[in-house]
Amino acid sequence: MSEPGETRPLAIVCGGGKFPIEVARAAAAAGRTPFLVGISGAADPAIEAFAHVWLRIGQLGKLFSTLSDRGVADVALIGGLTRPELGDLRLDWGAIKRLPELALAFRGGDNHLLAGIAAIFEREGLNVVGAHEIAPRLLAPLGPIGARAPTPQAEADISMGAALIAALSPFDAGQGVVIAKGRVVAVEAAEGTDAMLARVAALRDARRLRLSGPAGVFVKAPKRGQDLRLDMPAIGPETVAAAAKARLQGVAVAAGAVLIAEREAVARAADASGLFVAGYAP
Amino acid sequence: MSEPGETRPLAIVCGGGKFPIEVARAAAAAGRTPFLVGISGAADPAIEAFAHVWLRIGQLGKLFSTLSDRGVADVALIGGLTRPELGDLRLDWGAIKRLPELALAFRGGDNHLLAGIAAIFEREGLNVVGAHEIAPRLLAPLGPIGARAPTPQAEADISMGAALIAALSPFDAGQGVVIAKGRVVAVEAAEGTDAMLARVAALRDARRLRLSGPAGVFVKAPKRGQDLRLDMPAIGPETVAAAAKARLQGVAVAAGAVLIAEREAVARAADASGLFVAGYAP
Question: Which residue of chain B is at minimal alpha-carbon distance from A160?
Answer without folding.
Answer: B171
